[in-house]
Amino acid sequence: MLIKTKAGIPYSEVTPKSVYINRRRFLATAAAGAAVIATKPLTMWLEPGTVVASSKFENLVKSQYSSAETPTPSRIVTTFNNFWEFGDQKGDPFKNAVKFRTSPWSISVEGEVVKPRSFTMDEILQLVPLEERIYRHRCVEGWSIVVPWIGYSFNVLAKLVQPTSKARYVTFQSYYDPKQMPLARRTGLDFPYVEGLRLDEAMHPLALLCVGMYEDVLPNQDGALVRMVIPWKYGYKSIKSLVKVRFVGEQPPTIWDMANPGEYGFYSNVNPQVPNPRYSQATERRLGGSLFGNRINTQMFNGYDQVAGLYAGMDLHRYY
């Protein structure tokens, strides 16, 4: 289904189908008349002027970087995930990000660059053809998923601003609004969420600037409107709801390294040989047809051997 109110609708006015489905499910379960609500057509419950884009991305390029593995069902990926600004339990983002306002949206790119600038979502979408990349995604808690993400290499954006010779790292910052994200205070983390990569990591083709998943725009609970996906690192490195990028000369702080440096290092590469103090990383639980899926062996760099050269000569036990 594709519902439009007028032609030429800008991206800032488009809301993913999954957001409306989540919202209606949430309201339906909360309302006393849930059974009545469920019998009415979806269009009767849409706010005036809304746009539901169930097929926002129709002409996706199949990426050479895709895994051949079967994607995890979207119902799992959109209801069982981490987004700490909306709570610290796996089901919290699905419930609490329903009303997250994502318009207007832009990304500021600054720091050690020749051409600092701000990008609107429409500008981000117009840079290059969007690719569908089926990536493995590994979380430090021991579970993993396979997701058809949509976007393109972050280096496309980076090249437009022209990093200078002083740029050695890239720091990323998420959107944060305490009024929209009151549960963030309970986590003990120092928001806004910040992450970082070495410049050569950020410029690697596998580092994805992501604007969608499952052929649709990103749902609120999965990082709308734009996020990073770094498939060879643990999931918390793939920062959500990105609003600022800064090229810097020194290694930047990251939210989890600041909160608990004994468990979360700057690099955070998937490494079965380096256990987290609370979790073994030797195996993982691949979520699938059933939520708990199958136990499989964890691969170095999550199986993305293309990045091994980035860490040649480094002690990956020390630089975890």
Written account of the structure:
The protein is α+β, with helices and mostly antiparallel strands and 320 residues long. It has two domains: 1-56, no CATH class; 57-311, Oxidoreductase, molybdopterin-binding domain (Sulfite Oxidase, Chain A, domain 2, Alpha-Beta Complex), CATH 3.90.420. It has helices at 17-30, 34-38, 74-77, 92-96, 121-125, 154-161, 199-202, 255-259, and strands at 2-3, 14-16, 51-53, 61-62, 106-111, 117-120, 131-138, 143-153, 169-174, 194-198, 208-213, 216-217, 227-229, 242-248, 283-286, 294-297. The strands form three sheets. Strands 4, 7, 8, 11, 12, 13, 15 and 16 form an eight-stranded mixed beta sheet that branches. The chain has a five-stranded mixed beta sheet with strand order 6-5-14-9-10.
Biggest β-sheet description = 8 strands, mixed
End-to-end gap: 45 Å
For this structure, the CATH topology of the largest domain is Sulfite Oxidase, Chain A, domain 2
State the order of secondary-structure elements, H for helix, E for strand. Answer: EEHHEEHHEEHEEHEEHEEEEHEE
Query: Uncertain regions: pLDDT < 50 for 5+ in a row?
Result: 1-8, 18-55
Structural class: alpha+beta
Residues in helices, as a percent range:
10-25%
Strand content: 15-25%
CATH class of the largest domain: Alpha Beta
Compute the number of structural domains. 2
Q: Using the CA coordinates, give the radius of gyration.
A: 19 Å
The total count of strands amounts to 16
The whole-number mean of residue pLDDT values reads 86
